[in-house]
Design a protein that fits this description.
The structure is a homodimer.
Chain A: H1 11-18, H2 24-31, E1 36-37, H3 38-48, H4 57-70, E2 73-77, E3 85-89, H5 91-110
Antiparallel strand pairs in A: 1-3, 2-3
Chain A binds a DNA duplex through residues 20-22, 37-39, 42, 53-62, 77, 81-85.
Amino acid sequence: MAKTSPARTCPVAAFQKMISGKYKLRIVWDLKDGPRRYGEIRSGLLRGAEGSAEITPRVLSRELKALTMSGLIDRKDFGEVPPKVEYRLTRKGKSFVPVVAAIREWGERNLGEPVLTEAAE
Amino acid sequence: MAKTSPARTCPVAAFQKMISGKYKLRIVWDLKDGPRRYGEIRSGLLRGAEGSAEITPRVLSRELKALTMSGLIDRKDFGEVPPKVEYRLTRKGKSFVPVVAAIREWGERNLGEPVLTEAAE
DNA sequence: CAGCATCCTGCGTGATACTG
DNA sequence: CAGTATCACGCAGGATGCTG
């Protein structure tokens, strides 16, 4: 459906869809320091979260696959046993890091504290 | 800082939670130009989306309430009939606009095109 | 006009178990 | 180690109808 439709799927909506999922953003952030293996990502996510119990392989796998299909990360399978797979940011993924950084920065400044609504209530 | 704060609810996770919902980001973006009435927001969201059919009052209402409770927007009820309610960004909400801007900018640059996964790297 | 009440459905996510 | 398969469930979110 090429369509002539000029209505460009609202970038924000597309973004929402791309990062939908509880771990995608954190995975990207985790990979900014370099390639990581499946298990490392998993452990990393666990360390970062105090609330999450465990990330099931099914979920993590899905997130990674989605990120790969979004073109943010790249999967490198070393083949052979024992299995070794590394995930790394693509160029697109790297270009996305600053955005995540902005999000984190803002979040740290405004979400760390218990919502101090300056005039609310 | 109450708590020992070793595991600070990951800002990214908090962010995700805050903007969870299909319209929150777009509502914030819409309000950056100034206060808007309920109906205006609704129409605005419809214009911006080519895919969304209609936003049900139930959903929009919920999003607005959530944003209000997050401290991003402020609800001003003019009372009296006919009902007139305006929503506007709080200081916190305004500080969030640049982040959304970054998201949009990145999205426009990278999500408008059909994912050209650069094989090379 | 700006909502709320009710019903219904798909999907994201967690738990558990198994495999190459 | 790095996944896949199956089951189950909560909840976001759409449809409809009603109200102050």
